[in-house]
Amino acid sequence: xxxxxxxxxxxxxxxxxxxxxxxxxxxxxxxxxxxxxxxxxxxxxxxxxxxxxxxxxxxxxxxxxxxxxxxxxxxxxxxxxxxxxxxxxxxxxxxxxxxxxxxxxxxxxxxxxxxxxxxxxxxxxxxxxxxxxxxxxxxxxxxxxxxxxxx
Length: 151
Description:
- The protein is mainly alpha-helical.
- It has 2 domains: about 5-65; about 80-150, no CATH class.
- It has 8 helices and no strands.
- The chain is globular.
């Protein structure tokens, strides 16, 4: 299964996916450290609550506006300078997950500091064990170009 998009994660967090799709997303998220991190951040930012439903269209629109505002704040926080390390960590996770799998990627990145200063020194030796030194070096160069320089 490919990584679910933001809309799907929001529907999942709100409990609005059909049972079959929900179970598929649940299984993916439990096996994919990248998506698990993404869902956790999304739930925190949205402050998902099922305590009450809007009574009418005006309240529903206000609720939707509130959700959209929280999503925008969440995205802004993810890209803000104080969260640059976390954003880099997430991008690196997306780059290496296809090679190591979601669970292993999560395990490898867990000890990395939130600021990300030890990211490459933590990731490159592990990649070297799985891919060989030359391939790991090439992948780390790609990570620097595509994940780190973009942030």
